[in-house]
Amino acid sequence: MNKFIASAVLTATLSACGTAQAERAVPIPAAKMDVPKTAGLQTAVLAGGCFWGLEAVFERVKGVKAVTAGYAGGTRSTASYDQVATERTGHAEAVKLVYDPAQVSYGTLLRVYFSIAHNPTELNRQGPDSGPSYRSAIFPQTAQQKAVAAAYIAQLGQARVFPKPIVTKLEGGAFFPAEEYHQNFFDRNPTHPYIVRWDKPKVAGFKAGFPSLAR
């Protein structure tokens, strides 16, 4: 469902029932394999449902210097919200993270991603949003990231920390920034019905589950 349509449906529900309780981070182990620390900033690209919530969570992670909402997996010519919403572009809503590996590792970012930023067991959907643009996908930016992501998915699968199989895929493709009105949407629209219902609980859950990582 288009998130703007979902927001209209949610307005009356939130007025009658109040806001949702904070989500809890799924207690998952740290990655056994990680990308070695390097000098300089690094980039990660992750997809897992609406990029508003992903952006909001990762903006609050210590060591993450910048977060950009955008599209990954399709072409530049179709990297717009109206086209991506048709579910025919191959794009996923995603975020690009610029982070300092001296402060936070790639494996730690993946731990937050799998634990609270989204549900990795939902296929082509997250919450009220359905379609391949809301899929769970990691877009490794280096061969090391690809190896670490693959190993961590396998590690979590073997540990059976989720009640259902992980459906997250490793994909290739460029990242394209989304429209300006999507950037920093959580902080600029704190009373938006979608933010209140789906994203504020994630942020609260992150802060509760990862206090040492939260800004």
From TrEMBL:
Q: Which organism is it from?
A: Sphingomonas qilianensis
Q: What is its EC number?
A: 1.8.4.11
Which InterPro entries does this one have?
Met_Sox_Rdtase_MsrA_dom (IPR002569), Met_Sox_Rdtase_MsrA_sf (IPR036509)
Q: Which PROSITE patterns match?
A: PROKAR_LIPOPROTEIN
One GO molecular-function annotation for this sequence? peptide-methionine (S)-S-oxide reductase activity
Recorded catalytic activity of this chain's protein: [thioredoxin]-disulfide + L-methionine + H2O = L-methionine (S)-S-oxide + [thioredoxin]-dithiol; L-methionyl-[protein] + [thioredoxin]-disulfide + H2O = L-methionyl-(S)-S-oxide-[protein] + [thioredoxin]-dithiol
Q: What is this protein called?
A: Peptide methionine sulfoxide reductase MsrA
Is Transmembrane a UniProt keyword of this protein? no
